[in-house]
């Protein structure tokens, strides 16, 4: 339990002191501005929870606590984290209640939670929602429906529990905001005493409790604090371990007491005197209330009438008396002008409103009473000029004059002054607001707005003289946040929790009624160098002693903590901390002094994603069973270090090896243990540095010298002599544009897979379709017969090498004049196929069980090794297919082989293996270079020695000397990227030949490191490592409906939705699944494009198709658009007493289910909702029917990478869970990715990026984009984008957009200029 008064220390780390005789001054530490409790729209947001917030969150999940921290220190973030923790663990039958003392705070906190927790329904329940009229359980059940977090006032839940509409057993967690209000017989206290404690004492389950306050008691004294703790069954806790972190983020103002002179005599105000005279002259019998009771003449009415006549206290008389007393008090406190204004304004408002036929301000009043009072007010003598008169020292009080002096003398000039003036009385707010708004000096420096809390008057009942209504000042706080208003005059409603911007000036026009108010109001002045004034009557100097008493308590507590800090430093220096580890191979050293630094660097390396947590944090726990021997000694404690969610959960939490008396050494010990754990897991290398994979960067367009192309005819000549069954091929040649047709036979001693090809005979010559038929074996004749595989008569062409060794025999039954012309073309094709067959024999013969048996394998290999110079389009399409397949196979391999590696390690490891440089090196190592077909067709290679009508020979003029060791090897030059692309094309051919198994076998032929048994084995390893006993939290169950997939292992879905900023997660973040999912999506899209193109499209076109649907912008758009609908039911008021149910659907897009702990992400999500609402229709129209891809609109959306990440991670999770590409494909179909891809290809949508189109039109000239900031008044800064082609400026665009958007717009204009 928190000791007596020690909670006060959290509100002032430095002791305040008295300055002079007239001022109490508390000096502030000059530290950065703190984030408001609910500051989700300001720029003062932090990326993640601070150390002290994390400490309080950790404590809150272990036990019921009351978080005691300054106003503006981020208590709501602690509550948000605690609520997320609870939502992840409860079923649909329970919910969380977040309670506030006021309606305004209820609305604000509801909005904050809705922005912080997007995956569940969060609703507010207050008097403004008409819950007072919900008198059936059916209405309550309807209203609560799918609500997972109910935000309500204390009174609403207390009433619902009292009426039996809500049961304590249905609540998992209650958060009490401003928990110090749970005292006495308040609603918060009754919730606990009447329901919570009743159930707990009866042994029934009760909710967990989290309280939040800046001042846990309204009075100074430990007894009240203990009573609060007992009531809430919680212990007050403040940041103890990370107190310095709290102090560094909270500014304390200079506190001063300003005395104003007491008026020498009571001032005479004619309008007040006139009011008093009318009040004293009232005849009770003239009051219509008396007449009403007389007319009823029954026992009840006679009793009521008798009481009124004795007391003379009718409703109208009460209203008039209170109004008169208020006016008189204003005359004394504010001056005659204030009283005159108050009476004149109230009189005018009441007379105009009370007698109007459709008035609402006084709707609960009896009409006759309204008319009666209006007539009385008409007799009041008022100064009509008071409504417009400018305040001056002669007509305002010394108290108001003192306030004016403070405001004018402490205005910060142009640096952005913002202030709050706290006033006790609600009615006084309107008058002080008027005086300040009209005062010449104040009017010049400030724009003033009034703020009051909700009251019974806002729901119909309104008293005479109440001039403000919350519905009439709803925009005031919003304007204050934006700076349009910079001075508020407010009641205590702004003390507690209401999110207003940090102020540099706070003035208590009336002294704070309690230490709680003193601390709460001071918390509003949290800008650096801020000031806090308390106005006190000169005659009441004794009241200043209250603040002196608090100051003494703060000073004593500070001195105690200061001594404890000094003692801790001394103990740390005395404790021995000599743990050391020396890496045996390199001699690298890890010790207690460098462990924390090494661990920090490791976290920074792996936390590369935006918004990701990049720092470890430390939590300390005292050993309760080993108390210190004396008060002068520190207790033993252990430290726990928690690493970011980018690290596997099994490595995230590490405790110090032994207990220590100093936090400093305990944290070093924990860091040492954590780093050793990383070393043993091989997440750091032998130099004790984070793993890295150096990538060798090479110019892939540069040329490399490779072997001469393999000549298959040498081997053919040798085989011919030994062949017993040469292959006989039937071939049909048809003239494409005519009716000519011929058939012939080819005999060759090797199996060759030939497909249809086209032959063009010379410039402008005829084109022939050459169609090889199936092959059959042909028995050899005797030695004297022609070795052509046939003994039949006809015309024959024998192809021989330069040594007259027979290679191929052509034979046609009839005379064919064009046969000798076709022969070189056919032989060109045969040669390519023979090269492919040799490659298959040498490298792929043992590559999988399907090696060499699949129909068309050799043909696909031939296409894969045919360089682009030979003009075969299928090479490019196979390379396109193989690129995605290789990425998928290596992604699964590395992800499965290294289950503890974060995504960054996997990315660099994969890049090292499949980079162009690596593939090029492996191709050379496997001598693939000699099989790459680069020679263009040349008929002069073959010399015909026969005419068209006679048999003869065709002699090949050149035969390679492969295998002749005496000959010098000949070489050729080729681009490095051609080697890398050939490897990918071969893998693509394997994918087409025998599926993923053949593709993997062929991949391993070149990349021996990839020792994955099969794609399914790798996928199964990932599945088996995922926890199987994790239930799916209620807040993400809708994702299964959205995806159309029920997860066998729910832990995969949870991981897929966990951002790396979520330090509360007890699982890994989605980074690895997104890494895997990206490869799966790219592979599926690639196969769809390949299938649709039939292998005939160019690589560039297919790549553009794929890039159009697999990019951050489009996937981000899908995450925003793809949603699941949930039916909600609300209760609406039809009449004053009648309610009805109203159903409507709410869409939950995928991104709303993201689990994160980043305030910056929340702010980005809020901004994105506005951009998406503006751009959605345009993008949807372009996707549905547009003729061009919406590059500009998607870039203007500015979807952050986490939107695309969650799409990829979900697909990755489904792949691991289902093991089915078809299931993943169905998800891409459901989300709209594949339908748009098919429309792009079908309708030939222009997907060329404007910058790429500009590159084409530039014709090789250098293109340069220049971004220049243009000075101006706008905070974001105007930017100019200029685009140069060569030395010419073609376009220039100005705007406030991001650089990428400006470049696209500039490129579009430049394209128009070049066309």
Characterize the structure shown.
This protein has about 1300 residues and is of the alpha/beta class. About 45% of the residues lie in helices and about 15% in strands. It contains 43 helices and 35 strands. It has an 8-stranded mixed sheet. The protein has a 7-stranded parallel sheet with strand order 5-6-4-7-8-3-9. Strands 10-15-14-11-13-12 form a 6-stranded parallel sheet, with helices on both faces. Helix 1 packs across helix 2, helix 13 crosses helix 14 and helix 34 packs across helix 39. The longest helix is centred in the middle third of the chain and has 31 residues. The two termini are about 80 Å apart. The N terminus is likely disordered. Keywords: Antiviral defense, Antiviral protein, ATP-binding, Coiled coil, Helicase, Hydrolase, Nucleotide-binding, Repeat, RNA-binding. One of its GO terms (molecular function) is RNA binding. Belongs to the helicase family. Dicer subfamily. This is Dicer-like protein 2. One of its GO terms (cellular component) is nucleus.
